[in-house]
Amino acid sequence: MFDELPDAVVTLVTAAVSVLVALVVVQILHVVARRLGRRAQLFEQIAARLHRPVQCLAAVLAVQASLHATTTGGDWRGPLLHAVTVLVIASVAWVVGALLVILEDAALSRFRTDVENNKRNRRVHTQIMVVRRVTVAVVVVVALGAVLVTFPTARAAGASLLASAGIAGVVAALAAQSVLGNVFAGVQLAFSDELRIDDVVVVEGEWGRVEDITLSYVVLHLWDDRRLTLPTSYFTTKPFQNWTRNESALLGAVEIDVDWAVPTEDMRRELRHVCEGTDLWDGRACVFQVTDAIGGLVRVRALVTARDAPTLFDLRCHVRERLVQWLRENHPQALPRTRADVTGIPGVRIDKVENLNGRELGPGAVADAPDDARVFSGSADGRERSAAFAGRSEDT
After folding, report:
1. Which of these, 101, 156, 304, 393, is most buried using a 10 Å CB contact count?
2. Which residues form the Mechanosensitive ion channel MscS domain (predicted)?
3. Are 244 and 120 in contact (CB under 8 A)?
4. Backbone angles phi, psi at 102, to 5 degrees
5. Alpha carbon distance, N-terminus to C-terminus of the chain
6. Nearest CA to 194 among 116, 230, 246?
């Protein structure tokens, strides 16, 4: 009966039956993998990610086998087999890419980043994410090359393409130097440990967390939920602050300008009281120092520590707020103020000034400065220094 049917119909029926059988087999394997996935996460990933790619590959292979088994000639056989071959290559690439993703996910699951002191885990996550993008790109390029090789015209043009590869390579390198620079910078960031996923950084005056690192750009999740996207080459050519390169625990400073009347010891005790009264402080350091005293004001600095950058930011704001409130309520005389003397010093009048040689000067005259108040005169060393800066006169 089948001998009386046209070859096309026989091929179509055979292919349909083959595809149906292949899909049933794949579905059975999928159910088995899902059941095994209840005990092992790897099989769960296989069932989730490989189901569609394997279905596609099984169906295409079934069609290819049917064509080879039921047809021997015909004008339509060659183009159809070529199209099926292209689909087989694409399906294999899809399966290989899915397998690589499964292996990378399995590696990622072993290194959790939601724990403290996760520097090593974040480094591994960063490297695996970059390797994933590289492997996917390699699989796609290899698949496209394999597809092009199946075309006779592409194989014939291969010799001429190789002959002009030198010139084409130079032109492509010049045209895509910024793109290639970003790609190499992305690989460098992943394996040099300069930047990792979840690192807290300050870039261009913006404070945020590294959300994603690709082969061409880095995405920062800023503190106010904005996203800042920068090329990867930025982080290899320009300086930036990495607050979590060695560990997540940080030391932060709170600086306040106050009046000279500030009671430093009382303020130091208040800082300790503030730190001990909040769970934001990790207990490592709580230091109070006077770091500057010029311009009519005194600058005090409170150094505090926290377990990570977000907690440190909140702790600094809390310390600043409490110290300002404490000064305002308990020591208002220590608040910043500006003094100006517009009447002179009452009861003080200069009527008599004596020079260094004992000679009396008149009112308003200025006495000679002692030698230790002069830089370029008064002593032999000062006169020598003056001559060095003034240069020699024309008479000498």
Report:
1. 304
2. 179-245
3. no
4. -60, -45
5. 128
6. 246
> For 347-360, b where at least 16 C-beta lie within 10 A, e where not — what string?
eeeeeeeeeeeeee
Residue 321 above 90 pLDDT?
Answer: yes
pLDDT, tens digit, for every residue of 107-157?
777 776 655 556 667 777 777 777 777 788 888 888 887 887 777 766 555
376, pLDDT greater than 80: no
Lowest mean pLDDT across 145-149, 212-216, 264-268, 377-381: 377-381
CA distance 318 to 243: 20
Q: How far, CA to CA in Å, does 61 sit from each of 19, 81, 198, 288?
A: 8, 11, 44, 75
Burial of residue 44 (number of CB atoms within 10 Å: 0-12, 13-18, 19+): middle
Decide: 266 and 331 in contact? Cβ < 8 Å. Answer: yes
Number of Cβ atoms within 10 Å of the Cβ of 175: 10
Q: Which amino acid is at 67?
A: L
Q: Which of 104-108, 222-226, 238-242, 324-328 has the lowest mean pLDDT?
A: 104-108
